[in-house]
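[09:14] KT: can someone run the structure on this one? pasting the chain below
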Amino acid sequence: MNTRMRRIAFAVAAGAMAVSLAACGSAAESGDKKESGDSAAKGDDIKVGLLLPENQTARYEKFDKPLIEKKVKELTNNKGEVVYANAKQDASLQNQQVDTMITNKVDVLIVDAVDAKAIAGSVKKAKDAGIPVVAFDRLAEGPIDAYTSFDNVTVGKTQGEALLEALGDKAKDGQIVMMNGSSTDPNAALFKEGAHSVLDGKVKVGREYDTKEWKPENANANMEGAISALGKDKIVGVYSANDGMAGGIITALKAAGIADIPVTGQDAELAGVQRIVTGEQFMSVYKPFPQEANVAAELAVLLAQGKSLDSVAKDKVDSPTTKGVPSVLVPVISLTQENINDTVIKDGIYTVQEICTDKYKAACDKIGLK
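[09:31] RB: done, structure tokens below
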């Protein structure tokens, strides 16, 4: 791993350690201080409602749910309960799930919104019922009490910088296709903003799409349209906002006989990492899910217990409806063939055996992944 990557990885590790230490000491540091308007402070016997947006992206069921459940148990002496529901990319269903959580009298909600605007009314309902809300990964609108995510503009910048690095001199003459995420996801707009801040003026964007529901099949169809419109010999690279869409894009590229052009991604999904190993995908953005999940759990427990967030939430973020939301923004890393060992393997996200199945063993051997 090069010196720059070592510095970044060290910074992330240090940040994760700081969050972990904060989690251990928060109860003692914050005492029984209550946020204004909260009900009486509770003990460890709390009920945390967890609402995740969809199950197409591997991270939610594989990482976020079990990590949050584990951390809530750890922070409450195994007395805290997590009540879980997945909206399966249906904003109306997620609003119904909030109503159910209110009826079940959860003490706090962690919500990763399908649609940041559509959830606002439900967030207000929860607030009116005395249930604080942590916006997780996406900045939900409405009177949220806390927010944790990654620095999403930086995610887009990281993708754009990697794409320019991979393109080299080809950036001057060719065109790229930009495959952004869903227009209902506020993070998608931030990824796009970050990517454009790097790419604009450096490379021509031949076609650009906001991909409905982040679905790989929609990205695949969009990519087929871009190839038809631009011509397969004119496309030198693809900005893909996440790994799932990158899979659909690469399928379209292969079908058109286009090979050896860089495609970006995000989330370090197993299939994405395997495509990076083979060279089909140039990079992904590795976001340390354990750190984000642990922060979400800690914020939720503190809010449920009526304690201060000051020891954990050092940042403030404004949503379109709420100003100065106490927040924790987690750093990210550009994941390429060069640093798979030092990121997803070192952090225990995947083992070498999971990545280097029989299909990928020769490619793993070629890049020294053993």
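[09:33] KT: thanks! The first strand starts at residue 47 and ends at 52.
[09:34] RB: yep, looked fine to me
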